[in-house]
Amino acid sequence: MKITLAVPSNRGINAQTMQCLLELVAHGGYDFHILVASEGYTIAENRNYIAVQAVNNESDYVLMVDDDMTFEPTILDDLIANQKDIVGVAYHPRSETGQIVKYLDETHAVKLEESDDPKYKTLFECHATGTGIILIKCDVFRKIPQPHFQFEYHDNGKCKLGEDWWFCEKAKKFDIKTYADPRPKVGHLGEAIY
Q1: Hey, CA dihedral for 120, 166, 11, 134, is it positive or negative?
Q2: Where in the sequence is the domain holding 104, given as residue range(s)?
Q3: 20 to 30 Å CA-CA from 86: which of 25, 61, 145, 181?
Q4: Residue 194: inside a domain
């Protein structure tokens, strides 16, 4: 199975993230095409470049890992086992007060750490997920037109929708569902690991 392992970054890769990436590749089991995307001015442009490269090199999947994430070497095995077109992981934003949050629709959020609902303890369908770590079947990029990732802005220029949720919403218009897996142990690097 061919995997494009891609890091969108215009600022350099954190050393802990690099260690995790090396351990993932050493874990093996895949034909990796490794890509550090520094093309473009925004993260959306980085992600669009990654999508095009993954399709062009005929990868089966693309695993995008932001330059400030930590994870176990089995993350790819775990996400592929879900057999979904789009599957992200539950992770904290870079703040001590941040909760793991996944949106199920456009108005309802769930704080996974506080929920006793068993459906949020395993893979679940969601409205959108962050793309700090996300696995996408390359067929998704063949089914939906470019751009795949884009920011949406209010009239005053303030960001209304990030490129990650915009992608998930666009995929939904083509009947492609998004899932979140809360089980993989991941970290989001900042002043601490969240």
Answers
A1: positive
A2: 2-188
A3: 25
A4: no
SS3 188: strand
**Structure-block tokens of residue 188:** 């989001």
What the block records as the tokens of 71 is 């994870």
pLDDT tens column, 27-74? 999 999 999 998 778 899 999 999 999 999 999 999 999 999 999 999
CA 133, distance to chain mean position in Å, is 4
How far is it, in rounded angstroms, from Cα 103 to Cα 180? Answer: 10
Question: Where are any strands of DSSP class E within 38-194?
Answer: 61-65, 69-71, 86-89, 101-103, 109-111, 124-126, 133-137, 152-153, 159-161, 178-181, 186-188
The pTM (predicted TM-score) of the whole model is: 0.91
**What is the CATH number for 14?**
3.90.550.40
Per-residue pLDDT of 109-161, as tens digits, reads 677 777 788 888 899 998 888 899 999 999 999 999 999 999 999 999 998 88
Residue 183 included in any domain = yes
